[in-house]
Every structure is written in C-alpha cells, then in structure tokens.
TrEMBL record:
Pathway(s) of this molecule: Porphyrin-containing compound metabolism; protoporphyrin-IX biosynthesis; coproporphyrinogen-III from 5-aminolevulinate: step 3/4
SUPFAM superfamilies: HemD-like (SSF69618)
Organism of this sequence: Fluviicoccus keumensis
Protein name: Uroporphyrinogen-III synthase
InterPro entries: 4pyrrol_syn_uPrphyn_synt_sf, 4pyrrol_synth_uPrphyn_synth, UROS/Hem4
Length: 264
C-alpha cells in the first residue's frame, strides 16, 4: 500500500465515517489519519457463519473435481478453509484458486495456497483472468461466498455450459449496535463523508440514516456501486478506483479540491 507522506495531509479537518466491518477497518483508518482526516468507526456489516448442508458437505468432499475455486472475501476464505481442512489435509494438485482481492489472497496464502488476483478487484476483474476465460463446457467451478452475493460470475460461466456451485458460508447483517453508534456520532459532529464498500453496507446505511444518509457524500469502490447509490437517491457519490486506501483517499481529495473551487 502506498499512501501520501505524513507531511502531505490533504484531508486535514475532514471527518470521514468508515463503515468497514470491525477487524477489517484498521488499514483504511490508518491511511486516512495519515493524511489528516478524522475517522469515525460505524461498522455496517457483521457476519454470521452458516452450517454446511449435506449437499454442501458433498461439495467439500468433491473439492478435487473442481477446476477453479473462486473466493469472494476474506471471511469466505477463513470460513471456507476451516471447512475444507476437515477433509483435505493437502490441497488438490493442479487446481486454480482465485481471490477477488489482496486481503482474500493473503488469507489463502496463509493456508499454503497461491491464488490469482485480478488487477481490478471485482467480479468483472475475475472474469478477465485467463483461467476463467479458458474454461470449457463441463468444467466445474466452486465459489466460496456469503449468502446472497452477486451472480455475475455464475451467470457468465453458465452461459458457457460451465457448472458453478456455491458454498454459502455466512450471511451478512446490520450490527445491533449501529443505530446507537450513529446517534452518538451525529450528535458529536456531523461527518463530511462516508465510505461504503458493498451493496449491503449501502442498503444498511440508507435504512439506518434515512433521508439524512442520502445527503451525506458517499465514497464507493466501483462504478456499479456508484450507480446503485445514485439510483437510491444519494446526492453526492464519489467513485474510488478500488477498495485500496490510496484510491479512497484520492477520491476524497479530488472531491475536496473540487468543492474548494466551487465545482459540484
């Protein structure tokens, strides 16, 4: 990760809400503070592990029959590895593992795997990888994910007659403490911007904050999420190039500089 030097503090005085889950917010928090921002924690997602069904246990036992394993998040990696290790003390040879982003890749690497990661850390980026592009009819792909995730990869692969199986390992929910945290935060000082990194966090934020939430400038991490935020009525949407802290900072910096010049 590359962030501006400490002497360069372009976000000094800016109050930013970080909605990443507890335990996954520290890198972004540190990067924002390094460039002068005041950071407030408001986790909008927590995960609840799901037990494996008999069908899913069979998927785990059949791991070596999948040509590709695609892992959509660090949480999916951690929970998936726990389930798979019960049956696979050694990983199948020649199998391709794909992580959607760097944090997920680190989780898998810690288990002795060497996952591929797309340059663009999205499902669209995954679809551009050669092992996905070269899949043939009848090949099998296992997706480790949370309940109710995007279906873009599945739909694209099924159109090529590739079999795609989902291992739903957890569900996402709004933390019970979020409402109280938001009331406390807004009483202290109204923040200047909020960082939203998923569709679930966006929807939880709008449910939590109502019309007031729509007026707070929101940094999102993809064009797709930006379009969804605008569709749902968020007044100011700042699209960062990725989830990387330097890209979030760049989006906030560009917005702040444009605002100072009087540009909407």
């Amino acid at each position: 990760m590359t962030i501006p030097e400490a002497a360069d503090r372009p976000l000094t005085g800016l109050s930013v809400v970080n909605t990443r889950p507890a335990g996954r917010a520290t890198v972004l928090d540190a990067a924002l503070r390094a460039v002068g921002a005041t950071v407030h924690a408001l986790p909008l997602l927590e995960t609840e592990p799901l037990p494996l069904s008999p069908v899913q246990r069979q998927m785990v036992q059949d791991l070596d029959r999948y040509r590709v394993v695609f892992v959509v998040s660090p949480t999916a990696a951690a929970l998936g590895l726990d389930s798979l290790r019960d049956y696979w003390p050694q990983w199948p040879v020649g199998q391709v593992w794909i992580a959607v982003g760097a944090a997920t890749a680190r989780e898998l690497a810690g288990a002795g795997l060497s996952p591929l990661t797309p340059t663009i850390e999205t499902s669209e980026g995954v679809l551009s990888l050669p092992p996905i592009q070269t899949l043939q009819p009848g090949d099998r792909v296992l997706v480790l994910r949370g309940e109710g995730g995007r279906n873009l990869v599945r739909d694209w692969l099924q159109a090529k007659a590739v079999q795609v199986d989902y291992l739903d390992l957890y569900r996402r929910r709004l933390p019970a403490a979020a409402a109280g945290q938001w009331r406390s935060l807004r009483q202290d000082r109204k923040p200047d911007a909020i960082v939203l990194t998923s569709g679930e966090s966006l929807r939880h934020w709008l449910a939590l904050g109502g019309d007031e939430a729509r007026l707070l400038p929101a940094v999102v991490i993809s064009e797709r999420l930006g379009a969804e935020a605008m569709r749902l009525g968020v007044a100011v949407v700042l699209v960062a190039a990725s989830t990387r802290p330097e890209d979030v900072i760049a989006a906030l910096r560009a917005w702040r500089e444009a605002s100072a010049r009087g540009i909407d």
